[in-house]
Amino acid sequence: xxxxxxxxxxLRIFISLEDKFEGKPLWEYILQLVKExxxxxxxxxxxxxxxxxxxxxxxxxxWRLSQNLPVVVEIIDxxxxxxxxxxxxxxxxxxxxxxxxxxxxxxYRHRRE
Length: 113
Fold this sequence. Notes:
Blueprint: E1 6-16, E2 20-21, E3 24-25, H1 26-36, E4 42-46, E5 49-51, E6 57-59, E7 70-77, H2 79-89, E8 97-105
Antiparallel strand pairs: 1-7, 1-8, 2-3, 4-7, 5-6
Family: Belongs to the UPF0166 family.
InterPro entries: N-reg_PII-like_a/b, N-reg_PII/ATP_PRibTrfase_C, UPF0166
């Protein structure tokens, strides 16, 4: 799929592992929206620690049942597709950080089926 190679936009969404939308993990709901909106793809990273919007240290602890860890969702696509997607997700992110930056896609390959 050579169509993604070139100057593109990288959308990063910083949220919490415990964030939900309509009872579903927010990161999972965002991935569903990525697929429904035909974006090239997305990756979710779970961090081991971070400082959130309230300056609270969020870190892993074996003693806690729930782990409110930082999560980053990264999406790369054409600028126009990313900007349209931002309109879709605007109302579902109650708390978090959303950033957009320029990237140069060098290669984008997948196995043929």
